[in-house]
UniProtKB/TrEMBL annotation:
Belongs to the FPP/GGPP synthase family. It comes from the Bacteria. SUPFAM superfamilies: Terpenoid synthases. One of its GO terms (molecular function) is prenyltransferase activity. Signal peptide: none annotated. GO terms for biological process: isoprenoid biosynthetic process. Keywords: Magnesium, Metal-binding, Transferase. This is Polyprenyl synthetase. Its cofactor is Mg(2+).
């Protein structure tokens, strides 16, 4: 993996900035479509969605879909349909996750279940998943076979994420999970939804199965690193309530859990990098953007990266 200075140099290069301008334009269009995806005819759903969507997130998965699609040469409309579908699935998972975790706020705003009730949260999440399928059905200039493959991808990704979420919330497993068990659960919960944007673009581009399998493996590793960092942030809230990588590592190394977690993050990022670097540059470049963004926000990892390299 590159060191911190190399990341900054690449990030500021004119070609990268031009690519970002094009992606930002598509991102704006995606935001516009997403903000209006719940019919005003259904007042409860549309009000709850407007409230939730106004709590701006990073849109990492949507930007990953746009970046990969653009790099692979998909049209703007194809890129946007895929990106919107991926973001809808992610937002549905957040709404359901907030309900299951009884979280009161997200990005500074009350969660849907807290403001509008549990029933509204369940129904809105369900409606968003169906809307994701509709958006995929609108993808232009693809064959029926490709359209079916995209729908199958979303179905499989949602099922994997649901299985991971079940493990995440099963308190009976809390003190019996091994690190290997944790990785499997997180690959399902987080890895599947990070792989989906890239795999979707690859399906439209008719990438071969071996490349798709490597992409799944690489983004699964990235998903573990992402979840470990998220677990570190939520360690106090999650303690004795749900599966959390920090406390799992604390159980095996109580005097150095944070060091163990940081080492694990670097290991999984490095594995993801090695796998995804074997794919065409257009795909690896999209991964490197979200990897570098993570590292730019965590400069304290610089020393560890230099050790790995």
């Amino acid at each position: 993996m590159p060191d911190f200075d190399q990341i900054m140099e690449a990030f500021m290069s004119s070609s990268v900035l031009n690519d970002r301008s094009n992606i930002d334009h598509m991102l704006f269009e995606c935001e516009r479509i997403l903000s209006n995806c719940m019919s005003q005819q259904y007042e409860s759903l549309s009000a709850a969605w407007a409230h939730h969507f106004s709590a701006k997130g990073k849109r990492s998965r949507m930007r990953l879909a746009l970046s990969t699609s653009s790099n692979l040469g998909l049209t703007s409309q194809q890129s946007e349909c895929l990106a919107i579908a991926c973001e809808l699935v992610h937002q549905a998972s957040l709404i359901h996750d907030d309900l299951m975790d009884a979280d009161a706020s997200r990005n500074g705003k009350a969660t849907v279940w807290r403001k509008y009730g549990q029933a509204t949260a369940v129904c809105l999440g369900d409606a968003l998943l169906v809307e994701a399928m509709f958006q995929l059905s609108c993808t232009p200039d693809i064959s029926a076979v490709t359209r079916q493959a995209l729908i199958r991808l979303v179905r499989d990704s949602v099922q994997a994420a649901a299985e991971g979420q079940i493990d995440d919330c099963d308190i009976s497993k809390l003190h019996n999970f091994s690190y290997s068990d944790y990785c499997t659960a997180v690959q399902n919960k987080s890895g599947a939804l990070f792989a989906m944007p890239a795999i979707g673009a690859m399906l439209v581009k008719h990438s071969d199965n071996s490349e798709i399998e490597r992409a799944i493996a690489g983004f699964s590793e990235f998903g573990i690193a992402y979840q470990l960092l998220d677990d570190w942030k939520d360690r106090e809230v999650d303690k004795d309530r749900r599966l959390n990588g920090y406390w799992l590592l604390d159980r095996t190394n109580p005097d150095a859990a944070e060091v163990s977690l940081r080492t694990a993050v670097i290991k999984h990022l490095d594995t993801a990098d090695k796998i995804l670097s074997t794919l065409p540059h257009a795909i690896y470049q999209s991964f490197s953007e979200i990897r570098d963004e993570m590292l730019l926000k965590l400069p304290e990892l610089k020393t560890d990266l230099e050790v790995v390299n």
